Structure formats: structure tokens, C-alpha cells
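Progress report, Aim 2. The chain analyzed during this reporting quarter is listed below.
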Amino acid sequence: MKKASRSPAARSQSCDTLTPALVFELFELVAVLRVRPRLTEQCSKDGMKRLPSIQQVACHEDRKYNLIVLLCNNGSLLLKTEENGKSPVIKQVSWFQNPAKSIRAITLDPSGSWLMCACMDASLYIVPVAGMVMVNPQVSCSYWATEDLSLILETKNRGLPSSVVWWHTVDDLDIGIIGTELGEILFVDLRLKVTVASVEAKESITSLKLMQDKQHETTALLINTVSGDTVQMQLEYKSMHKTSIDQLRSSSFSVTTSMAVAMGYEALSKRTIPMESVFSGMRDLQDKIRPMPVTSSSGSTQFSVQYARNQVFIGAHNKVTDILEIYDIDNENLPMFVYQLPPGTVDVLLTDRVIFTITHQELSGETLLCVQSSQLAETSVSVPKGHQVKLLNFC
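Predicted C-alpha cells for the chain:
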């Protein structure tokens, strides 16, 4: 355990430029998992100190256990799990030594049992992470190996993967969605191990976020691009026309069209759209990508998927004013909540009671973890107010 090491005077001085209000001593920074360098790796050839870094993280939590997967810059995966009533288990998983097989993006399935990895050479693997760290994992699957890697896809003609998400559809299919630096979005049936659909974005994709709202029975894909813009692709609707997979497979459609229809692209709105008119060509599928419903100037608003109060929300962070607006995905005309974030916020996580933000201060070069009370941070778009935050320096 390690508490933030800065003195109260230094901490207060750093906060003066960020918060006109008081900084409350409510939280303590505790390291639950640390990545340490090997002695031979602490200094590079040029004599500069090189510390290991965490490139990506994927996590899962339910009533039985929680799991954290870290992708480190040495190519290995670090797993940490904690089951109810048991001691935490930490395990490092080595990866291929071939640089072409280095991992570019990771994501967990909804159950937290399987990890999907997209590699530099555009290959796709599934890792049985639950079986690696749990004492008695109750994982049975006839599609992927439970004690080894499963190669799902291997192709040489795609762009570098930049983001992946795991989509479990209403038709009980497991679909991997891969975004690439060339602006491609690929839909891969993880059981059949085949690409079933693809679509082109206008520019390089930086991240994909899946927004599944069980209450409204809708699913959408948020697509963030290199210019800072965000578009959405509606995947499932509550008024969706249902067609069995057996009927689709016996039809005269091609494999790509049939599987794409099975993924649930039958409706564009609350009225049913004929299947053939939607998937007769790439142009129809391309029309699924639409602008975000919240009006914003190009690149000034960062959209995110937020989970709080047993609901799914759309977060719209204005990077100029550092105002965070929270929208219900079923009513996107007016924000349900409006929060004032600390200056320089680059990432935000909303919870039931507090807001976690990562801020970067240009003048000092500091990167800070800020914890705010969501109630005290509430404001209006027209009248921003001061911040009441707890700042933790983890530079």
C-alpha cells in the first residue's frame, strides 16, 4: 500500500490553479497492482531510465468475482482476479515473441471468462483468462479451447487494429467488432471464425465503445476517430424483426449477407425494414453510421459510454469548457445531468456518487487523478462553478 507522497503544502500549491474551492482529504491513493521493471530494463542504451508502462486495460466485475487484465509494453498480459472470500490471484501470461504477433487491442466478453486479442498482423485470438486465474472455473465451451489460445482469424490484407469490442447479440451470437487505422470496421463471428460484415469509416478509428441498454433493448456502437469526432452505428432495436438463423442459412443470401442479418440489422427505426433492401450492398450498411444526436462542433466534444444508477448514459464532454453533459440514450434532447469537470480533463468515469477524471496540466506537465462528488459537481451549461475535488498525483 502506498499513500500519495506529496506534502500537504505542495499539494495545496498545485491545487490553487485547479480549484478555487477547498480540497478535501477524503481519499488515499493505494496501489493494488504495480508493474515493476527488471533490473536490466531500468536503463536503456542511451542511459535514460525506461519504466514499464500499461498500454491497455480490460476489466470485469460481478457478484462472484472481479478481473483486471493489463496489456504491458513488454507484450505480456498481467491478470489479477479476486473471488468472493478468496485471496487475490495474480498471473503473468507471456505472448508470442514474433513482433508481428504483438497485441494491439484487448477486450473481455460479457461474462469475464474470455479475452479477445487483436494482433499487429490483424490476427485475432481468444484467451481463456478465467481458467487461468480461477481455482474452479465453471467454464465450458465447444467453440474455443479452455486451456490454450484459440486462433479465430488470420488475414494479411487489413489495416492495423486499433480497437476491439465483444458483442453478444440478442440472437445469442458472439461477434467481435474490430476497428482499424484504415477506418475499417470488421464484424467477426467468433464461433464460426469468419468475417461476416464490414463497413468503412471516413478516417482512422481510435476507439470503439459498445453501448448496450437492456432496459430499452437497444445496442449501439460509438466510433471515435483520429480527428476527435464521434459517430454512432445502431446495432439492435427493441422493434427489431426476428428471423431464425436456420431460416437465414437456408435462404439464397450469401454467407456475409445472411450472417449480417442474423446479427440483427433488420431495422433502422421503429418500423421494420426489408432485409434485402438493407443488405443489398455496402452502401446500405454504410448508412448505418450516423452523427451523434448531441450537437457539437467538430472535435470539441468527447463522447463516452457511462454506467451509473443502474442505467446506461451518453456522456458529452466539452473539452473547451470542461462541462460534462449526461444524456439518456432514449431521450437525447436535453441532458439529465450537467457537471463541471476540472480543467485539462482528458478522461472521465461517472459512478453513482463520485466522478473520476484524469487531467493533464500543460504548464506543470503533471498528470492527476481527480475524484469529485457528483452532487457538488452539478452545475448548468450557462453558469459553471468551482470544483471541489480530491487530487492524486501519479506522475
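Residues 49-157 form one domain. Helices lie at 8-15, 129-133, 245-249, 255-262, 275-278, 282-286, 374-377. These observations will guide the mutagenesis work planned for the next reporting period.
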